[in-house]
């Protein structure tokens, strides 16, 4: 086999690479700098039967404290290309295709598109992670999901050993899931044997279909309130992006920009976007009341963001919810009509877990500003986070009969 073309570096720990800041030492770590090198790194690990974890921004991984005796691969390619005319042609289709390599930081792509006057993903501003991970998870927020804008996803098929191009239908996007993510699990939240913790399909690049437009519909009530407009109104996409960043900052849902000063993270994100996140952090401190400090807000950001997915229920199960529980009719491919989504944050709060809740002698806690985020308050271990997550899952299930499922990929949970 050809030797992979890549940068080989001394291996870090998962704590060095993840937003939660926990996890054991990694045995081997590779940063391929081109497409062939990425494929060869993956193929080499599979040929040797070596455990494989392809990591993006590390915002959706909770790894065990024990060492990972396998290979971790992080795509070092960060390229964005507009495939059509950069400016709209009068009287013609205003759609435009934008391609990005899997290793591109997601928010760098959003910022680029907003600056270019391309609408469709501005509501997804500030979500940590990479372009590759975005389509595996089908990230979504404030009325948008990435799956709504996907044209094609180029992948390496680890089973057939070929490059494939999947269209949006083949991706089978659902709520925080896709056909790629499904290959990792044999049941919701239950890891499979063959491919976990990395899907059968490794994302190489993603092509989105966006629209030449400096405005976009505001389809989120919360976002509309922040912008002081009615839901459904058109607003400049720059203002939408700024409002989303501000909302996420107040909730502690922007990653800590300081992590990009660490040696393992330097160069993985555009400097201008790091500065924007820093400014949003400072503004959120000013706007917070009750003596919240910048240190408190930074600590809240040492998390995986929303740790639990909002439960998606059939009509029978939804009818058993308390009348005051939030309920939203949703329609996803493969789901029956009448499917209802409820709020995991509401369930957690009404099961008795308040903001800042933690177990005795544990440095893992619920965020002080958002009950859906589990945070590392400083010196937490993965086991602390596991124990807190299970306690919350058990409490919600006991109260409401619903088992909430973690959103992050949980590696080697004990």
Automatic annotation (TrEMBL):
Localisation per UniProt entry: Cytoplasm
Cofactor: FAD
A Gene Ontology molecular function term of the record: UDP-N-acetylmuramate dehydrogenase activity
Catalytic residues of the enzyme: 176, 306 (proton donor), 407
EC number of the protein: 1.3.1.98
BP terms from Gene Ontology: cell division; cell wall organization; peptidoglycan biosynthetic process; regulation of cell shape
Keywords: Cell cycle, Cell division, Cell shape, Cell wall biogenesis/degradation, Cytoplasm, FAD, Flavoprotein, NADP, Oxidoreductase, Peptidoglycan synthesis
GO terms under cellular component: cytosol
Pathway(s) where this gene product acts: Cell wall biogenesis; peptidoglycan biosynthesis
Catalytic reactions on record: UDP-N-acetyl-alpha-D-muramate + NADP(+) = UDP-N-acetyl-3-O-(1-carboxyvinyl)-alpha-D-glucosamine + NADPH + H(+)
Domain FAD-binding PCMH-type: 22-213
Keyword Cell wall biogenesis/degradation on entry: yes
Domain of life: Bacteria
Coarse class of the protein's main subcellular location: cytoplasm
Function: Cell wall formation.
Family listed: Belongs to the MurB family.
Name of the protein this chain belongs to: UDP-N-acetylenolpyruvoylglucosamine reductase
């Amino acid at each position: 086999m050809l030797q992979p073309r890549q940068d080989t570096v001394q291996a870090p720990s998962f704590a060095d690479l993840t937003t939660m800041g926990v996890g054991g030492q990694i045995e081997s770590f590779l940063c391929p700098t081109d497409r062939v090198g990425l494929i060869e790194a993956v193929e080499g690990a599979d040929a040797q039967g070596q455990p494989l974890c392809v990591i993006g921004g590390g915002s959706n991984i909770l790894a065990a404290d024990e060492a990972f005796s396998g290979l971790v691969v992080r795509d070092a390619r960060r390229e964005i290309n507009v495939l059509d005319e950069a400016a709209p042609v009068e009287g013609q289709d205003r759609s435009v295709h934008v391609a990005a390599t899997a290793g591109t930081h997601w928010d760098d792509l959003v910022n680029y598109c907003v600056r270019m006057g391309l609408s469709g993903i501005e509501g997804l501003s500030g979500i940590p992670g990479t372009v590759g991970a975005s389509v595996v998870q089908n990230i979504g927020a404030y009325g948008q999901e990435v799956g709504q804008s996907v044209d094609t996803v180029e992948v390496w098929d680890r089973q057939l050993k070929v490059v494939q191009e999947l269209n949006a239908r083949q991706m089978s996007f659902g709520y925080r899931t896709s056909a790629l993510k499904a290959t990792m699990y044999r049941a919701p939240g239950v890891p499979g044997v063959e491919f976990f913790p990395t899907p059968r399909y490794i994302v190489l690049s993603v092509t989105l279909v966006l629209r030449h437009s400096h405005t976009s519909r505001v389809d989120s009530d919360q976002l509309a309130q922040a912008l002081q407009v009615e839901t459904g109104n058109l607003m400049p996409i720059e203002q939408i992006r700024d409002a989303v960043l501000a909302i996420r900052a107040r909730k502690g849902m922007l990653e800590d920009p300081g992590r990009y000063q660490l040696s393992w993270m330097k160069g993985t994100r555009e400097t201008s976007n790091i500065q924007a996140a820093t400014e949003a952090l400072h503004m959120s401190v000013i706007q917070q009341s009750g003596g919240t400090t910048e240190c408190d807000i930074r600590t809240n950001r040492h998390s995986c963001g929303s740790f639990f997915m909002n439960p998606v229920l059939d009509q029978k199960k939804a009818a058993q919810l308390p009348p005051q529980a939030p309920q939203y009719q949703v329609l996803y491919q493969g789901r029956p009509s009448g499917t209802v989504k409820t709020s995991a944050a509401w369930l957690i709060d009404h099961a008795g877990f308040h903001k800042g809740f933690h177990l005795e002698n544990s440095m893992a806690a619920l965020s002080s500003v958002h009950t859906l985020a589990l945070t590392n308050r400083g010196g937490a271990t993965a086991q602390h986070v596991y124990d807190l997550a299970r306690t919350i899952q058990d409490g919600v299930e006991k109260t409401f009969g619903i088992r909430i499922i973690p959103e992050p990929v949980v590696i080697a949970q004990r």
